[in-house]
Design a protein that fits this description.
The chain is an alpha/beta fold. Helices cover about 65% and strands about 5% of the residues. It contains 12 helices and 5 strands. It has a 5-stranded mixed beta sheet with strand order 1-2-3-4-5, sandwiched between helices. Helix 3 runs antiparallel to helix 4, helix 3 packs across helix 5 and helix 4 packs antiparallel against helix 6. The termini are far apart.
Amino acid sequence: MTHADALRAAAPVYKDELLNEMLKRRITVADGEHLHAAVRWNNEDHLLEQALLVLRAHCDSLEREHHHANRRAEHDPYVNDPECTRTTARCARVAVRLRQLLVQELAWAREDVTEAEHLQQKLRSVHGAKRVERYRRHPHSTPELDAVAALLRDQAESAARAGVLLAKDRDQLHALAFEEEQAQVFLASPASTSLSQIRAMSPHQFERLISDLVARDGLDVNQRHGGPHDGGIDVIATTPGGDKLAVQCKHTTKDAPVGIAAIRELNGIAGPVHHADIAILITNSTFSKPAAKFAQQQHITLLSWSVLVRWATWGESLLDILELEENAGLAA
């Protein structure tokens, strides 16, 4: 039995006799080359469809991871919520970084899916004798399949990169979870001082709290509070590295921010009078924008209530705060 006889025997029977006659004529003229082209075209279309499934699945996976990272990035109540630890903000920053990297991977993945869909349409646009002509021109390969194979290689590399990003993200979250657990333990201890307790203090009690916190973090405290002969500085201490800190405390029961006058006063005495390497002004309130700008110009560190919560309530070390926070003062 010839290929044509086998095709005629297996051919479908349509209700329309005209269609049956047209199909018989097509089968009658079919030779080995036509049959080869039909089988090859059919299998290549199947392979391209499978490749599209892989590319779409990868794109969907990146979409989901990007969505999760986006939700985490948007959940950052730390700045305005004294109940949140520093790890809350860091979790959001980790998510922002992951989201930025996934955006690029997702853009590439979408482009690859669009290109593969175009290749599929191009392959399916070839019918009848055109298939034979096509495979005569390309006896050993098909341009669309070669192109989609390159897309699959890109997909594999993208999946590997995304895997590294997600693994790093998980490691960072595990580390932050451990830090959060430590912060919760400190919160439950007598060493933790809440923002409401701080606001209820007198200025003198506030100064003593600051000096105690400085000592807690391993600094050598030379002056624990202000007084008539304090030279305008409330707390003086030395870091393990030998830097001298001059700390001015501004306690208030009002919501008004600390203004630029206090910053100018500290700037005039911290270095010239006390020869301090680091000048710090700390408050249980905030700082005005002019104060924050002037402090930045003069390299004065401002610690507002939100940083105070990290330090006093959650137990973060002052040395870590000074190292990690380039602009600790929050303008009102």
